[in-house]
Amino acid sequence: MQSNSTVLCGGFGLCGVPDTLINEVAETPSITGLTAVSNNAGIPGSGLGKWLDTKQITRMVASYVGENNVLESMYLTGEVELELTPQGTLAQRCDAGGKGIPAFYTPAAFGTVVQTGEIPLKHNQDGSIAAYGKPRDVKVFNGKSYVMEEAIPGDYAFVKAYKADKLGNAQFRLAAQNFNGAMGRNAKVTIVEAEHIVEPGEMSPESIHLPGIYVKKVIQSTAEKKIEKYTNRPAD
């Protein structure tokens, strides 16, 4: 894996996160300057939060960052660029790239600082604004305004699967589908980490969510499953 790459990371919160792959990169400090694209940035010490701890991320593209105060601090002091993108738009930007669509129009973010380009992209060390986002093109269709969003091409995609065969065909479990499929179809090199690896032919065709034609490598998932928040029934 090369430094200064764009890495698409599946997952939502800590659900469906490719922690084994993330941990391997975190343990390789020579890999730096990464642009990480994910719904969120994990939490301190877990998920993509590990890359923030090791300072391997220079740019983050995400839709929700409220659970990681490390990212907040690094963004406000100029250590990391942060491109905030509406959640559905982020999913579509990844999905569009996998389908060869360079850009699309969406009503999301019209009339906001995302559309006008007035949202801060990077701060200086003293907290002043160093750079702003890029203004979006606006078109009107059937009397309604839409903003243009560009696809996000990935150099690498890290995907977490419940089951995969040795040809790369992957199945996601329940809500762990989230961003994994769209990102897995949208990178030069897609690596799947799977909880269960089976022989070709053991998975029924209709159970496959990510065809192996998109996948370069399959590895065994070994990282412990993290739970972000526990909710317990009150004691009787």
From the N-terminal CA to the C-terminal CA, the straight-line distance is 53 Å
**Helix percentage:** 10-25%
Measured by DSSP, the beta-strand proportion falls in 25-35%
Number of helices: 6
Q: In total, how many beta strands? A: 13
Rounded radius of gyration (Å): 18 Å
Q: How would you state the average pLDDT, rounded? A: 93
Shape: globular
- Uncertain regions: pLDDT < 50 for 5+ in a row? none
H/E series, N to C? Answer: EHEHEHEHEHEEEEEEHEE
SSE blueprint and pairings:
Elements: E1 6-9, H1 19-26, E2 34-37, H2 49-53, E3 57-62, H3 69-76, E4 81-84, H4 87-98, E5 103-106, H5 113-116, E6 120-123, E7 129-132, E8 138-141, E9 144-150, E10 154-165, E11 170-171, H6 180-184, E12 187-198, E13 217-220
Parallel strand pairs: 1-2, 1-10, 2-3, 3-4, 10-12, 12-13
Antiparallel strand pairs: 5-9, 6-7, 8-9, 10-11
Polypeptide structure, described:
By secondary structure, this protein is an alpha/beta fold. Helix content is 18%, strand content 30%. It has 6 helices and 13 strands. The protein has helices at residues 19-26, 49-53, 69-76, 87-98, 113-116, 180-184, and strands at residues 6-9, 34-37, 57-62, 81-84, 103-106, 120-123, 129-132, 138-141, 144-150, 154-165, 170-171, 187-198, 217-220. Strands 1, 2, 3, 4, 10, 11, 12 and 13 form an 8-stranded mixed sheet that branches. Strands 5-9-8 form a 3-stranded antiparallel sheet. Strand 1 (6-9), helix 1 (19-26) and strand 2 form a beta-alpha-beta unit. It is globular. The model has no long low-confidence stretch (mean pLDDT 93).
